[in-house]
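Dear Dr. L.,

I hope this message finds you well. Following up on our conversation about the binding site, I have prepared a predicted three-dimensional model of the protein together with zinc ion. For your records, I am including the exact sequence and ligand specification that went into the calculation, followed by the structure tokens. Please feel free to forward this to your student if that is useful.
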Amino acid sequence: MNAITHLAPEWHNWIQENLSRGCAPQSLIDDMVRNHFDPVFARAAVNGIMSGPFVATAKPPPQTQSSNGYVYERPRLYAGNLIRTSDRDVRVVTRVNRPMIAVLDGVLSEEECDELIRRSADKMRRSTTVDPLTGKHEVIADRSSEGTFFTLNADPFIARLDRRISEVMNWPVENGEGLQILHYGVGGEYKPHFDYFPPEDPGSQVQMTIGGQRVSTMVMYLNEVEEGGTTIFPDIGLEVVPKKGSAVYFEYTNSQNQLDRLTLHGGSPVTRGEKWIVTKWMRQRRYGEAAA
Ligand code: PD2
Ligand code: ZN
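The resulting structure of the complex is given below.
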């Protein structure tokens, strides 16, 4: 049977209704593919309706410009209090609109947090940071932690997380870098930095050859930290306290390639206990393997 490549009115209504209820676009695409739609057509149909005028959650608020010139477009993150993904509901706890930051509860289950730590524990290495001059990864003092990473869709467990995370971030799974695990002991910190590649750094061009600029980040907390280890946004005075399974999400590159300097952020020193996180960085374009 040939895959379906046209949208009957009842399917059009079905997509509109489900998007308005806050369903993740990817889950709608999957349902359509199960119902014999062509995958590329299904994605285009859902995306097309999302950017149209009919869906309540997709209505763009008026664009606003910050004092530093960054234009705040409609956030990629869904409006509403609950984000439904294909396998888990994620609760929005806090939103900041300028810069666009959200604290999210229940992105990972407790068991998934434990499993990520278990799989990482014996392959941790001293963390590196991108050298601004060369674009290469170097060990530097600003990041006193150790880490490891999982290639995109490395196995069914990781692929399931990559997919859920892409649904929460509302950005294609193949635009994501592989999940990066970080572990900090007492005294471990990550000095304030930008997650995007600053255009003034010569090394940034090297970083952007595949996938382009980073557009958004989600830092997920894998354990409770006894004291310290908060994620700080010093320019807006925000501090997010780690909670197992929760996350802080933020956006910093808009469709005009502008970069939001208010997303300067860091990890404050852990003063008691330890801190485990997993980070997803999304790129403008395809970066990794196709979805599993
Ligand atoms: O550990 C953190 O809270 C943290 C802070 C700043 C993580 C990152 N950046 C990151 O992974 O980019
Ligand atoms: Zn960061």
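In brief: Helices lie at 9-20, 25-34, 39-50, 110-120, 156-169, 204-207.

With kind regards,
A. P.
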